[in-house]
């Protein structure tokens, strides 16, 4: 049954046979070596392999999976969709985030935060859009447990193939999916490194690559938490309070930027945030989450935003134009999370695990015996 871009991929859809085949030994060794090599370098970000929309060098024998390799684009993508997560494990919620974002890039823009030049039809999407699955080995908030990083890379590999399978079967399209590692903890640092990495510098240098960063509502809250950027500089002790009215010339002078503006200003020049709402007891309902974004804009003017506007926390309210809020799960449907997926795997509840993760990811979890302890 076909799913629209705004609907979650159905559990039990018929996937293509995973190219990870019958054994994960070769792939596990590859990802272990790739992780070791990345840690041994001074690189802050790198693409270690690509799951191509047209399989290259894939063996037909189940016991001889193809060795992954990075496949740089022949031309600089116009849009790079970035799913930065702990992938512990990737779930059907992640699959929904990725596939709906990919399909949305093929439709004409409906709001002012889309660039018409980046809108492509289904036939052109494969050449102008790519998906990057990014694993941070130095996450600002999450420690590397319970699955080790090389196993998470394997889960990402299986997940990338599930993305390909869903796109081909449900939308008759496909794009290349890159798998990358980052040693940077913060979104703005990762965005800058992605923009500069040589992997995406192929083709005409004048082509500007836009970034679409896929995040959950909880991540949006962290992005605008001032604690990650440092305090706004205070005047030196003893500085007299200036109560004079500024002149017209002084008003035109550029004000010093806050730490948050220095960090996030360049981010929002190159990237949009596509935020999937999380409607549950912890984060509130849809209206509450939409109001949070509204308060970021209106909170600088009057009391509507309760003093939580971007301007008051050291940001710029224009950034809100680069944020798109999209529906998460429908009301009344089961919550899907990595925590519940790990619990199902530990309990040996295969039926519940199937509801939490896509087919290839489930295969990898069971093949490698992950989350049993």
Automatic annotation (TrEMBL):
SUPFAM superfamilies found in the cross-reference section: Nucleotidylyl transferase
Chain residue ranges for the region called Disordered: 55-75, 235-258
InterPro entries recorded: Rossmann-like_a/b/a_fold
Source organism, top-level taxon: Eukaryota
Protein name in the entry: Nicotinamide-nucleotide adenylyltransferase
Annotated organism of origin: Podospora comata
Species lineage: Eukaryota, Fungi, Dikarya, Ascomycota, Pezizomycotina
């Amino acid at each position: 049954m076909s799913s629209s871009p705004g609907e979650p991929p159905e559990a039990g859809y018929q996937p293509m046979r995973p190219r990870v085949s019958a054994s994960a030994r070769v792939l596990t060794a590859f990802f272990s070596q790739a992780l070791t090599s990345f840690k041994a370098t001074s690189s802050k970000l790198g693409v270690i392999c690509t799951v191509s929309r047209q399989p290259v060098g894939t063996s037909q024998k189940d016991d001889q999976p193809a060795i992954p390799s990075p496949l740089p684009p022949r031309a600089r993508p116009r849009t790079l969709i970035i799913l930065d997560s702990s992938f512990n494990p990737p779930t059907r919620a992640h699959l929904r985030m990725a596939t709906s974002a990919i399909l949305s890039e093929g439709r004409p823009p409906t709001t002012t935060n889309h660039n018409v030049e980046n809108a492509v039809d289904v036939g052109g999407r494969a050449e102008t859009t790519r998906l990057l699955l990014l694993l941070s080995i130095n996450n600002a908030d999450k420690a590397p447990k319970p699955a080790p990083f090389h196993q998470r890379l394997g889960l990402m590999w299986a997940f990338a193939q599930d993305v390909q399978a869903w796109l081909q079967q449900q939308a008759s399209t496909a794009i290349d999916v890159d798998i990358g590692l980052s040693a940077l903890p913060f979104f703005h640092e990762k965005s800058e490194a992605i923009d500069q990495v040589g992997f995406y510098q192929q083709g005409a240098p004048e082509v500007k690559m836009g970034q679409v960063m896929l995040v959950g509502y909880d991540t949006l809250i962290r992005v605008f938490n001032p604690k990650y950027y440092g305090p706004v500089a205070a005047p030196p002790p003893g500085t007299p309070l200036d109560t004079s009215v500024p002149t017209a010339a002084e008003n035109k002078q550029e004000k010093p930027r806050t730490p948050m503006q220095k960090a996030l200003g360049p981010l929002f020049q190159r990237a949009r945030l596509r935020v999937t709402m999380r409607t549950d007891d912890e984060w509130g309902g849809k209206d509450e989450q939409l109001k949070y974004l509204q308060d970021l804009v209106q909170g600088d003017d009057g009391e509507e935003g309760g003093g939580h506007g971007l301007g008051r926390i050291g940001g710029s309210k224009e950034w809100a134009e680069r944020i798109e809020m999209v529906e998460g799960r429908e009301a009344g449907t089961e919550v899907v999370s990595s925590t519940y997926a790990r619990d199902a795997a530990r309990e040996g509840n295969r039926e519940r695990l199937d509801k939490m993760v896509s087919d290839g990811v489930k295969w990898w979890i069971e093949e490698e015996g992950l989350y049993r302890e």
